[in-house]
Amino acid sequence: MAMNLRESLKEFWRLNVSKVGLIFLSMLILASIYVVASYPLDFGVRYWNNPSYWADYPKSAPPAWVNLISSEKAPEHYVLTYTKPSNITLTGTERKLSYIFEIDFQADRPPSFISFTILDITYHERPSTVKLSVLRPDMKNIEVYSFIVSGPYLGEEPPYRRYYDQPKRISITGDMLTATALSRFLYREYNVTLRPSEVNSIGQHKILFSIPVRDREFKVLKGQYIFTIDVYTYNPNDEVGEVTLVIGGEVYGVMGTDSLGRDLFIGLLFGFPVALFIGIVTSTITTLLGAGLGIVGGYLGGRVDEVIQRIADFINNIPLLPFLIFLAFILGQNIWILVFLLVVFGWPTLTIIVRSMVLQLKSGQFIEAAISIGAPRWWIMFKHIFPQVAPFIFAQLIFFTPTFILLEAALSFLGLGDPTLPTWGQILEYGFRSGGIYVGLWWWIIPPGILIIWTAITFVLIALGMEPVVNPRLRKIK
Amino acid sequence: MALLEIVGLKLFYKSLRGIVRAVDNISFQLDYGEALGIVGESGCGKTSLANAIMKTLPSNIDKYEGKILIEGVNIVELTEEEVRRKIRWKMISMVFQGAMNVLNPVIRVGLQIAEPLIIHAGMNKDEAYSIAREKMKLVGLHEELFNRYPHELSGGMKQRIVIAMALVMNPKIIILDEPTSALDVSIQAQIMNLLKRLKKELNLSMIFITHDIALASDISDRIAVMYAGQIVEIGLAEQILLSPKHPYTQKLLKATPRLRGEEKPDFIPGTPPDLVNPPSGCRFHPRCPYVMEICREREPLDFELERNWRTKCWLYGGEHG
Amino acid sequence: MDRELIKLEDIKMYFQSRVGLFKTIPIKAVDGVSVSIVKGEALGIVGESGCGKTTLARISLRLLKPTSGRIFFEGKDITDVDEKELKWFRRRAQAVFQDPYSSINPFMTVREILEEPLILHKVGDRTERLELISKALADVKLTPIEEFLGKYPHMLSGGQRQRVGIARALILKPDYIAADEPVSMIDASSRAEILYLLKELQEKYGIAFLYITHDIATAKHFSNRIAVMYLGKIVEIGGSRELVNDTLHPYSHALIEAVPEPDPSNRLRERRVLVGEPPSPANPPRGCRFHPRCPYRFEPCDKDEPELKEVKKGHSVACYLY
Ligand SMILES: Nc1ncnc2c1ncn2[C@@H]1O[C@H](COP(=O)(O)OP(=O)(O)OP(=O)(O)O)[C@@H](O)[C@H]1O
Ligand SMILES: Nc1ncnc2c1ncn2[C@@H]1O[C@H](COP(=O)(O)OP(=O)(O)OP(=O)(O)O)[C@@H](O)[C@H]1O
Ligand code: SF4
Ligand SMILES: [Mg+2]
Ligand SMILES: [Mg+2]
Q: Does A237 share its domain with A307?
């Protein structure tokens, strides 16, 4: 018996699987909306697959929360950025812009490096001076580094703009100036003699974050560090774009990083809309195409049907994965090509099922009744046949979705995904390819796997919940 | 003592909509060699009555009570095991509605006839097969059909097979539930002739269920008219067919189109009653042309018109009405 | 002679039925039938299951193209006309189907079901259409009308559904209606009600009516003429009363003899019945198709097929006895 929409929804909602499925689905959708609203669409090319963007990030770092479960605390990674100074001090025409970074350092090991970057400085008269100093938890202050922005070129007119296309990156670690400053600092405060070259080989960042104990041995100093970057300007129109301090750590963020230093959390998050997009768009197109061809072929019969069936049989008999790999390889790796390929290989199954349902419906008296009142063929297909198979088609749409998400993951995993978009399959693939799995980079391998499975399960749960809604009608047709 | 005596039989089902009162306080008797026709509209409870007598009940039973005495033994009180051992197929058997369409398609029909003999009566194969052949002959089927599959037989032949299956253990009573409604009239007439012969030759008692009162007249010595789970009139075929008393029986007869004679068929206006919420008082009152005040309020009693002829209608209530 | 509205001329319909892998054999569902119906007349077609009644009805509506033979509607040959050019015919010829459960779309309301033909044939605007729908519902006595307009088929009883089916057939004011066993799925006690309704409307609007049934008794009461079919052929045709009271063909005799009437003396005698069952239409017997079962057969019967010939005014039979 036909159910109306209200009854169908009620029937659907009755089952727990449906409820869980819907909750999962709304989580997926919310995450996707968040991503689409807050990330640039060219995120893939501009950031994800741009190694210089991740230069400041630790490589293959586990998530920060592993510190909660390991006995020795690894230093966390900080990337701290200011676009506005924290403080401005005026003395005559001189303006000091201070960028103050406070870091509560509680790790058992020193950071792995320290660097800072300046982006886009503009001056009009005198070049600006940049200074980095650190106030340690023991209240000792160190002038670590300073430099003067390069002066005007011959014939250059103000304003003078510097570092706007490529930021100026200063690595404290490995810097001889800093080594000299630290060498002096050690001698002055602890009476320890270390030549700058020795400081350099121990590591500037290590010495900055510790106190010497015995000969050439250092103990990490925990507590509040205040990094101050002062930019001295000499004209009211001088400007500073962005100042970033990076304290290299061994753990990073919620999800850790991969071997290129990419923040997996961001990549995985970006994977949500991509997975949903591929799943839903592909399955919608596939379902519409498959059902449409099934209805047309089944109802019209004859030559049209013959051709559709032949093609469907042909495609159905091609071993899917090898052929997809081959085609993706030839046609190139682009999400639209991928969707296209998945559709091409997806529709025949549905066409065959829908066709057989239509063949049964076609012999029903209401079709003959429609013909006898003069209904044209398209009318019959649209008004009389489609509504009867619609619930089944809708269920298939939902059922196809995880299939396509998994297929995309599989293709990405084989290195055939769209390189301009991070997908879970690709993250997984890169993890495997760069050997992440062999060296135990679990945070790189497990989450994308779980997300893929979770998304697939979401749709399977919804499909299960729809079963009792759709099936009585199927039985009626059969 | 009658062969079969049914007293106050009730069979109610549980359903989503409520209790379905499919068999509601039915009583009648059946004698040796007698055929009783049970006639009524679709859904009035005919099949349910047959199932109640056979004790082949579905699982959603709400109430099953009353007396079904076969030669004095009350099967309502017997266990399923006892019914299977002593009663079903041996004393009383049934040709189920549509049974010819549910023959096992992959077993030769002869074996399907012999099967109960081997399984229930523990006979050896040869003995069972020879009885099966004999029963096939009895129902007018050639022995060479023994090895055919159901789809190789016509509708009429399949119906004969089903009848042979019911006769295989020589029951005294056979219940036939719409045995010919899927067949063409000429085949139907052949089957009816067969039933008449069996009745005479085997002195078989029959309960013949049909929605077609004309067809019932073809075999029944007595006819019971059912309406909404109850017997509203029961009597000899002559009494029921020639001078029907209950308004429903009268209407039913008038609704039967006559081939001979000019009388135009009539129809019963309104819709058949709902067995979950049957009408108050007399269940026929919403469709009855003679409805009176009392009909709406009180359920009519069984009024005896003559010996063995009674009806449930206030028109015949005399002092009650 | 009255003007023939619909005329079938030597219609043959052979279906190809596959036997085994490569072989097909023709099923001669209808094998040379000529019949016509005049305006306002009701023709009953009776016969046993598989004799080709439904096939004939479908051909008369051009829902099937016959293997050979011609279909004329008001003198126009519509046998091979393209479906697109047939719209005028679709408007004037309608069908009532056997199964009230499967002949109407369960996803449409009564109103939508009845509006569909009007929309397809661009009849009236919305309000005019509603008027016509109300009138059709009143015609088939589905009142109060407002109550039924919004109902879905599953909220209706079998009889009510069949009335919707009849209203759908009537709404375009057709000249011809073919009804294929319109009451066989309806409870016996309500059948006559639907038949009276059909007859009343048929007479009121002067519709030519093809009534297909296996129940010769109702055919007698509800049609002017009866044609008896056996294995794809008409074996006898004549005025209903005359055909029943003065039956000619042995098969018609047997058919009539087999119909029980409520008579207590029935049980005391065996009926005279035909032996065996009708042969398969794939392989009809030669000569008279009925001869293997005929109690009166004589020499010519198994040689050539007897022609349908008029033996009395308006009463024809295909049998060598006449
Ligand atoms: N197992 C069941 N559970 C609930 N209701 C049932 C069951 N079997 C039958 N019914 C209902 O009981 C009523 C009587 O059914 P039954 O099959 O006995 O009627 P019937 O007179 O044999 O009808 P028909 O002529 O159509 O065979 C019907 O309303 C039917 O829907
Ligand atoms: N589309 C078809 N393809 C093949 N054979 C068919 C087709 N339609 C009908 N037949 C066969 O043609 C013969 C006549 O069928 P038809 O349906 O016309 O009979 P009928 O007289 O209407 O029977 P019934 O009383 O059972 O409805 C039957 O043998 C049937 O199996
Ligand atoms: S009891 Fe009343 S309502 Fe019922 S049948 Fe008799 S007269 Fe009609
Ligand atoms: Mg029944
Ligand atoms: Mg038919």
A: no
Domain C4-317 has CATH 3.40.640.10: no
Burial class (CB in 10 A: 0-12, 13-18, 19+), B95: buried
May I ask the CATH class of domain B4-91+171-316?
alpha beta
Assigned domain for A432 exists: yes
Task: Check residue A441 and report its DSSP letter.
Answer: -
Neighbours of chain B (3+ CB pairs under 8 A): C
Chains A, C: CB pairs < 8 Å: 69
Q: Are residues A98 and A23 in the same domain?
A: no
Q: Is the ipTM of this complex over 0.85?
A: yes
The DSSP H or E segment spanning B253 is helix B247-254
Rounded mean pLDDT for each run of 10 residues along chain A, 478 residues in total: 65 81 91 88 81 81 84 87 91 90 91 90 91 93 91 87 87 90 91 90 90 85 94 91 90 85 88 87 92 93 92 87 78 81 88 92 88 91 89 85 85 78 84 77 87 89 79 43
Q: Residue B131 to residues B116, B123, B127, B143, C160: CA-CA distances in angstroms?
A: 11, 10, 6, 11, 50
Cross-chain Cβ contact A1/C103 below 8 Å: no
Sorted by where each begins, the domain ranges of chain C are 4-317
Please enumerate residues of A whose Cβ is less than 8 A from a Cβ of C. Answer: 1-2, 4, 364-366, 368-376, 379, 383-384, 387-388
Query: How far C19 CA lies from chain A's nearest CA (Å)?
Result: 21
Chain A partners within 8 Å of C98 (Cβ): 365
Domain boundaries along the sequence of chain B: 4-91+171-316, 102-170
Number of domains chain A contains: 2
Please check whether residues A332 and A362 belong to one and the same domain: yes
Which contiguous run of DSSP H or E holds residue A20?
A: helix A16-38
Nearest Cα to C60, choosing from C79, C46, C86, C85? C79
Of A195, A223, A248, the residue that ends a domain is A248
pTM above threshold 0.80? no
Q: What is the DSSP letter of B242?
A: H
Residues A454 and A344 in one domain: yes
